[in-house]
Structure formats: C-alpha cells, structure tokens
Amino acid sequence: MITMTEIARLTKVSQPTVSRVLNGNMNVAPDIRERVLACAREHNYQPNILAKGLQGSKTHLLGVLLTDISNGFFADVAKAIETEAREHGYSIILFNSNYNTDSEREYLDVVRRYRVDGILAVPIRETSEIWQEYAKKLEVPVVAVTRQARGLDSVYVDHAEAGKMVARYLIQQGYQQFLFIGKDYDRKYLGFHQELSEWGQAKAFTNIVYQDDTQMKRELGAYLPCRKLRLGIFAGNDIYALRILSFLQELQFIVPAEAGVIGFDDTMMARYLNPSLSSVSQPIKQMAQEGVSRLLYRIGHPGKHPLWDCPLHGQVVPRESS
C-alpha cells in the first residue's frame, strides 16, 4: 500500500503538502492538489486511521459494545447503529461482552486503543458505580443505548413502564397468577411487580432467575404443577420466552389456556413461532438515531454538559402465546 512519503516522491511535492491535500486542506495550488490526488487514486491510497487517531485527528470510527449479539434484538440494534453512523460519515467497530464483566472491561480497553471518536454501549450492570467510573476514564464520549446508565447520556425504552404495561395486559387477559423470568434487579421486574401490587396481586407473583436451561426446566417443573389458576408468564427477553414455551409444551401445559407467555424485544422469530409469541416491541431505529446523534454532539462539543436522558416507550404486541 502506498504511503504519503511515496506519493511525495512520485509527484515531486513535499510530504507536508501531500498531507494537507489528503486531509482536505484547500490551501494548496490547484495543479499540485490535482497531481497529488491523481497519484493517490492511481495507487489506491488508504489513510492510516489509527495513525490519524494518534495524531489527535478524528478517526471517524465509533465503538459499539453489546451484551449478546446472538440475541436478534441486539443484532438489529447493531445494524440500526451502523446505518445511522454511515449517514454521518462514520464506521463502527463491534464488540460483544456476552454478559461477562471481564470481557466488557477488556473490550472497552481495546476500543480505546483503536482511538475511536466515541462509544455506544449496552452496559451489563448499568447501575454500577464501577461501570460509571470506568467509562469516565475512557477519554472519549460514551452514550448508553437500550439502558439507562448511571452517570452517562442514555437512550432507552423505559423498562419499568414496560413491565407495568405487561402486568396490566396479563390481568386484563384474565390471568390470575404471575411469574417473571429474569433478574430481580431488572427494571422490567420492578415495574411488573409494582403494577401487580397496585392491583392487589402481589401474593400471586413469583420470580425465577434464569441461570441455564437445566435449572429453569427443574424449577418450572416444580412450580407449574402447583398452579391451580391461569398463569401469566413475563420473560425478560424473547430468548427466555422461546425456551419457556418449549418447556411448557414438554410439561403438557396448554398455551395460552392454562399458561400464557409474553416476551420482550419483539424479535423477528416472535412472529413465526407456533404459537406466535406476544412480546414488547422497542423503537430500535429511533433509539439508534438518538444515540448516534447525541454521541456525535458530544464528539463535536467536548467539555462538561448536563447529562442527557432520553426515555422512549415500548408497546405490547399481543399474539397467540397470551
């Protein structure tokens, strides 16, 4: 690959002048500018992005750190971010923490070494003070997407509000007992539990933390036969919901007559399952647009600014499973 030094030798122009031309500086004589650009085109010159970052110039790279790229929702988020970034002349570097905090820390270090201009991240524990302090040390702007992260600009669907919507929906559908599948620090859980309590259904509520398929099948196998009333199950994401539907069929529960299931994220597979999966949809395109826009603002306006909080609204999408 040809370098600036070689272009300078071939065109008989000084290397600083070649640098100015290739970096878009118009204060160069037109004939010299055209000679340099023609040589660069002929030899397929490609700028060294990392070197530009080391020099303090913008690399036009954004780091994107997700928690689980195997989840169709996060794949859709990555695609929407890439599309929006490209509209503004940026490329992305994608990393997957796989819900591992050590991997998350390692990848954030890698992103920093790539000299990206900014980072869009889905934190594993968005309320963690450790995460907040580490993000501050990255020396580039960070915007949290899909989650409200303490101390960071954030664009997200209000999970507590969504949990409340699901609770109301299940009550209105005639369910009389309620199960949440997921972490008890999840805001979806908190909203779901709060709304059930306000409807006087707190005693009819149970939570099971999903650790692995064997554990979940065992706990559901012990829990479900004891249920005498119609059970509404809210799964923390569509992947959990898919597995719950499979377990219910193995345990010979009739869906949704005896037990109904609603997921979260409304991934493409939800529409094509049998029965099709009720879920909570998120405005992914809007989330990506807002997140990239805020990050580019931070990149273009360094310094202290008030924290930006952008809650969006999910929507219950009823299907056959509930």
Helix-strand blueprint:
Blueprint: H1 4-11, H2 15-22, H3 30-42, H4 49-54, E1 61-66, H5 72-87, E2 91-96, H6 101-113, E3 118-121, H7 129-136, E4 142-145, E5 153-157, H8 159-172, E6 177-181, H9 187-198, E7 205-208, H10 213-223, E8 231-235, H11 238-250, E9 259-262, H12 269-272, E10 279-281, H13 284-300, E11 309-312, E12 315-317
Parallel strand pairs: 1-2, 1-3, 3-4, 4-5, 5-11, 6-7, 6-8, 8-9
Antiparallel strand pairs: 10-12
Helix pairs in contact: 1-2, 1-3, 5-13, 8-9
List keywords for this structure.
322 residues; alpha/beta; six-stranded parallel sheet
Describe this structure in words.
This protein has 322 residues and is an alpha/beta fold. 44% of the residues lie in helices and 16% in strands. The protein is built from 13 helices and 12 strands. It has helices at 4-11, 15-22, 30-42, 49-54, 72-87, 101-113, 129-136, 159-172, 187-198, 213-223, 238-250, 269-272, 284-300; strands at residues 61-66, 91-96, 118-121, 142-145, 153-157, 177-181, 205-208, 231-235, 259-262, 279-281, 309-312, 315-317. A 6-stranded parallel beta sheet has the order 2-1-3-4-5-11, sandwiched between helices. Strands 7-6-8-9 form a 4-stranded parallel beta sheet. Helix 9 links the parallel strand 6 and strand 7. The longest helix has 17 residues, at 284-300. The mean pLDDT is 88.
